[in-house]
Amino acid sequence: MKELRGLIREIDRDGLLFLIKQANTLIYNQRVEKLNREAEQDRRNPPATQQKKQENPSVQEGGVSIERGAFGRSFILDLGQVRKTFDEGEMLGLVGVAKAGTSPRDGAARIYRWLSRNRDDVLLDAGINSAGNSILADLWKVLGRSFSIRNQGQL
């Protein structure tokens, strides 16, 4: 820490802005890695009882399913052959975007834009290269039918 503080005095404004962006990227990547580890743990150790299964239902449409992580802190999106973990804030954003869509095509386009700005890893890993991909229309249907935003921004 002491070394970093000493170096900061020698860095110009543009350099500091670059470092801030890099730090934010590192923090975001660490958060995504943690969520992915939790999702992998959830996948390896599924709930043992049927009661647990009923508390954590999966919603499905076409090649898309969404389930809440075992500890309730994350959501797991299964997009064909790709599983991605979203935290609750990301899901709130995604549901808000989906709810604004007026049709499967409009909803898919909105989701595509949101993902390209916020979670482009999902698009890359799922092989989604346009808003016309049918997985996005299925995702729009699942989000619109199965989720609502309650008071205080909760799902």
How would you explain this protein's 3D organization?
By secondary structure, the protein is α+β, with helices and mostly antiparallel strands. The chain has one domain (38-153). Helices cover 60% and strands 14% of the residues. It has 7 helices and 4 strands. It has a 4-stranded antiparallel beta sheet with strand order 1-2-3-4. Helix 4 packs across helix 7 and helix 5 (104-118) crosses helix 7 (134-146). It is globular.
Q: What secondary-structure arrangement, pairings included, does this model have?
A:
Elements: H1 2-8, H2 13-44, H3 50-55, E1 58-61, E2 64-68, E3 74-79, E4 82-87, H4 88-100, H5 104-118, H6 120-126, H7 134-146
Antiparallel strand pairs: 1-2, 2-3, 3-4
Radius of gyration using CA atoms only: 18 Å
For the biggest β-sheet, the strand order reads: 1-2-3-4
Number of helices: 7
Shape estimate: globular
List keywords for this structure.
4-stranded antiparallel sheet, 4 strands, single chain, 14% strand, alpha+beta, 155 residues, 7 helices
Summarize the structure.
The chain is of the alpha+beta class. 60% of the residues lie in helices and 14% in strands.
